[in-house]
Amino acid sequence: MLLLSINAFAQNISGKAYYQSKTTVDMDNFGGNQMSEAQKKMIMDRMKSMLEKTYILTFKGDESVYKEEEKLETGGSGRFGGMMGSFSAGEQYKNLKTNQLLEEREFFGKQFLINDTLANLQWEVGKESKQIGQYLAIKATAVKRIDENDFNFARRRGRGRNNDKTAEERKKDSLKAIEDPLSQIEVPKELVVTAWFTPQIPVANGPAEYAGLPGLILELNIDRTTILCSKIVLNPNDMDEIEAPKKGDNVSREEYNKITKEKIEELQENFRGRGNGRGRN
Prior knowledge:
This protein has helices at 2-11, 37-51, 78-85, 167-179, 253-276; strands at residues 14-23, 52-60, 63-68, 92-95, 100-107, 110-117, 124-132, 135-145, 155-156, 185-186, 190-198, 216-222, 225-234, 249-252. By secondary structure, it is α+β, with helices and mostly antiparallel strands. A twelve-stranded mixed beta sheet has the order 7-8-11-12-13-1-2-3-4-5-6-14. Strands 9-10 form a two-stranded antiparallel sheet. A hairpin with a 2-residue loop joins β5 (100-107) and β6. The protein is globular.
C-alpha cells in the first residue's frame, strides 16, 4: 500500500535538474612522458570544453529528456577535439515504463537516432549517506558492462607503465601517439558506477542513461567522470513538454557501434599511411 502511494506521488512530480559534468585526464604519462608542463596545460585548456559540461534533466512521470545546456561557442578544441566530440551523446530520451532509451548522435557529420533499451543495472544500496545541497543522498553501486566499441569510456592505453620503459621506448611511444593517436586509447570491459540518490525526490530517474533507484540521482561517478547536480526546480509553472527525439537515421546500439568501429579502423589506416609515407620523395 505504501509502495503504491509512493509510485502515485512520483507520477505527479515534474521538474528540472541541472548537472555539472567533469572528466579528468591522466596527463602524467600523456605523449610518452615527453611533454612539458606548459604543453600539457595547453592541451588541457583546449580540451576544457569537452571535459566540463552542463546538462539539464527535464522529467515528468516516467519520461525524461537529458541534454547539454545551450551556450555560445568560444572556439573549437582542434581537430582531435572535433573528432572526440563525435563520441559524445546528444539529446537522450528515457521512458522508464517502456524501458526505452532514444539517443541522438552526430557522428562525423551524419545524424543518427539510436533506439536502445535502458541498462538493467543491479544496484546495491549501502548504508553510507551524505548531504548534497539540501538533500540527504544515499550511496548505491553497480557494475556496468561496456561495449568494446563505445568510445565514451575510452582510456589511454597502457597508462601508468612508462616508468618501466627506457627513454628510447618512451620516445617511440610518443612518436606513435603523434602518427596514430587512436591506437593510444582502449575501452575497458566493465566499470564500477557509484550513484548518490535522494529518497526525498521519489523519482527513479537520473542523468544520462542512469535510472532505477528509489529516488533522483544527484551524483554519479563513472571512471574519471563525475556528474553532480547543482540545482533542482520541482513542479515549475513553465514546464517544458517532453518529446522523444526524431532526427537522424534510426539504428540499434549494435548497428551504431559497428559503424563507429569501421570508421575508427579507417582513420587508423589513414594515420598509419601518413606515418609510412614520411620521408619519401
